[in-house]
Amino acid sequence: MKNCFIEFIINNSERFGMLQNMFKLLKEEKEKDIINFRESKWYDFFDEESLMSFWRPTSQELKEYAKLWNESSFINRFFDPRLNKKWRILCI
How far apart are CA 46 and CA 42, in angstroms? Predict the structure, then answer.
């Protein structure tokens, strides 16, 4: 497996500390194979301003997005603004 990374700039040490704590718990739960991203505890690692960076769709919005994604051509998926969403917390 190839090692990958995300490069970023830390502009808030308190938020970065919370992110580190979240990834520590994520690593622990992954090792135990007990990760459940549907649990609300994952949201507790982010303040309200940080949560605004995530796309938190309703079930209906997710169905509509999946339908649009599947109906779009490969190239259009990357240029259609309706498919350009923020990160989903479940994707972390």
Answer: 8
